[in-house]
Design a protein that fits this description.
heterodimer, A: mainly beta, OB fold (Dihydrolipoamide Acetyltransferase, E2P), globular, B: alpha/beta, 10-stranded mixed β-sheet, two-stranded antiparallel ribbon, binds zinc ion
Chain lengths: 142, 388
């Protein structure tokens, strides 16, 4: 099938395409990482290549714990975009003091509650057009 | 700064339209020119077009020039497109306002247009994912409903807001839309129908959500001198405010039932207009989802924080109440053709303040407010008045 960037819902994750490729490399190895500003030390979520606080573009990678709790969630049952199935649990996960947006996998929607512990569960999605695997940082009940 | 007024307004039919992107531009443009016969396309010095995703839905960019040519407008002072997701239309009105207030133009059309429906419905929804962060949100399949659902969950947990109160927003707006011949939905709805409609994203059900709609709207914006030449009933822009809290969900206020950017945008607009919330007779607020209208009551100052549920349940946002909210039917009843919405809100306030709203007329409406947002974190507020 022809590949059109405009209908590919996933980011291009490799070093050819993004300054933040290290995030995805670590994710593929089961680690949740983010950036810390090289000048003012501010920890960011999501990772970023420019610090909006001090204006520096130097950053270092640091691993987060991978274990968090549900801060807020909703279950979408209908009206999902092409290529995504419901019911789909969208959640804001609190992890090391940061708020991370994600989905919950392997969760029974009726049993989810605010405050519930969850663990990183890297989700493999469609390969990029040159065949490299792609991953998203999903979570599952801990 | 010079005073600025609306002198004309028109909207297309909203709905799942058997019409092209350009057909919608023609319809709204004609309705707007028909409302002000003294103005011909060649008299208009500028055009601002609010449109979010014609690149995806009509495979077309270079929008302002395309629309100018379609309408016979030859811009000499201002030509621009505004893309600011769901608030694109009101952001366009602010551009026209600023150019005219500064003396750079005297007569500008602002047109909002969107052709969202596609042969496949799931493609239309896929496109809506362009409005949230691609890498960190949309890649998971996120679109607007789950975002606003988080706000609803929080409002219910914190303030005891009920599913019935959410449904009452849908009921009011569907009822209002039944008196609007341009609305997407004109059959009204019952509370039972709303409460039994399909769950979209917990706790928001289908009739608590705005649909995928095609439509366009246009207003003519003029300097004080030009406005007084053209009409003895101009509708003045008295105040405007815009504020950003954040773009990604994880950058917003941690309490998703609090929208500080809306409070700030409203305060700027009230201060500029020299009015208080209680002075507003009619308000067009951004009810993309029922919870958004409830939170808007609070952040706009129509009621205290947490009291929006009882406020709608007591009829205080309906005819005969404190302020009539969404008389044209809102986004829930009229539909939400993104770029067109803010302009259609202005067109409704224009009709209301001129006493031309027919079956929807709010008695003796003198001050009108519009609220348009792009996500929960960014808000634009306009205040209009019969008197300058
Ligand atoms: Zn920094």
């Amino acid at each position: 099938m022809l590949y059109f960037r405009a209908t590919d819902p996933f980011p291009l994750e490799s070093a050819d395409h993004t300054k933040l490729h290290e995030f995805y490399t670590r994710l593929a190895a089961g680690r949740l990482a983010t950036t810390r500003c090289g000048a003012c030390g501010r920890l960011a979520w999501p990772p970023r290549g420019f610090c909006g606080e001090c204006g520096s573009d130097r950053f270092d990678w640091t691993d987060l714990s991978g274990l968090g709790t549900i801060h807020a969630f909703t279950v979408q049952e209908a009206g999902l975009p092409a290529g995504f199935d419901g019911p789909r649990v969208f959640a804001i996960v609190k992890i090391d003091g940061l708020r991370v947006f994600s989905i919950l996998v392997d969760a029974e929607p009726s049993s989810i509650a605010v405050g519930q512990p969850v663990r990183l569960a890297p989700l493999r999605v469609a390969d990029d057009p040159s065949g490299s695997p792609r991953w998203l940082p999903a979570f599952r009940p801990a | 700064m010079r005073k600025v007024a609306l002198v004309g307004a028109g909207v297309s039919r909203f709905g799942v339209r058997k019409a092209s992107y350009r057909d919608l531009i023609w319809e709204a443009g004609k309705a707007c020119f028909d409302s002000m016969p003294a103005v011909k396309p060649r008299d208009v010095q500028g055009l601002v077009v609010g449109s979010v995703m014609p690149e995806r839905t009509a495979f077309q960019s270079h929008i302002a020039s395309m629309a100018a040519e379609a309408l016979g407008i030859r811009p000499s002072a201002l030509s621009a497109r505004t893309e600011h997701m769901c608030a694109s239309g009101t952001v366009g009105i602010r551009y026209a306002y600023a150019f005219i207030a500064a003396g750079l133009a005297d007569l500008v059309m602002v047109l909002g247009v969107e052709k969202l429906n596609q042969p496949r419905g799931d493609e239309a929804i896929l496109n809506m994912g362009t409005g949230v962060d691609r890498e960190w949100e949309a890649a998971f399949g996120l679109t607007a409903p789950p975002c606003f659902a988080l706000a609803a969950q929080r409002h219910m947990a914190e303030y005891g807001t009920t599913e019935e109160q959410l449904a009452m927003v849908g009921l009011k707006n569907h009822t209002h839309a039944s008196k609007n011949p341009n609305a997407h939905f004109q059959k009204g709805a019952t509370l039972d129908q709303i409460l039994c409609s399909r769950m979209i994203s917990t706790p928001l059900r289908l009739f608590m959500c705005s649909p995928i709609t095609d439509g366009a709207a246009a207003v003519l914006v003029a300097s004080e001198d030009r406005a007084r030449d053209l009409t003895d009933r101009p509708v003045w822009i008295r105040g405007t405010g815009q504020a950003l809290d954040g773009f990604q969900l994880t950058s917003l206020h941690e309490d998703y039932a609090r929208w500080p950017a809306l409070e700030r945008a409203a305060q700027s607009a009230y201060r500029m207009a020299g009015i208080a919330p209680a002075d507003v007779d009619v308000a067009e607020v951004h009810d993309c989802f029922a919870i958004a209208e409830l939170i808007a009551y609070e952040e706009l100052g129509f009621c205290r924080k947490g009291e929006a549920g009882p406020f709608v349940a007591a009829g205080r946002s309906d005819y005969g109440g404190d302020v009539v909210v969404n008389p044209r039917g809102g986004l829930i009843g009229c539909g939400h053709p993104l770029g067109a919405t803010g302009v259609a809100q202005a067109a409704e306030v224009f009709a209301q303040l001129r006493g031309e709203a027919g079956a929807r007329q709010v008695p003796d409406a003198r001050v009108g407010l519009t609220h348009n947002n792009s996500g929960m974190g960014e808000h634009v507020v306009m205040i209009y008045g019969r008197e300058a």
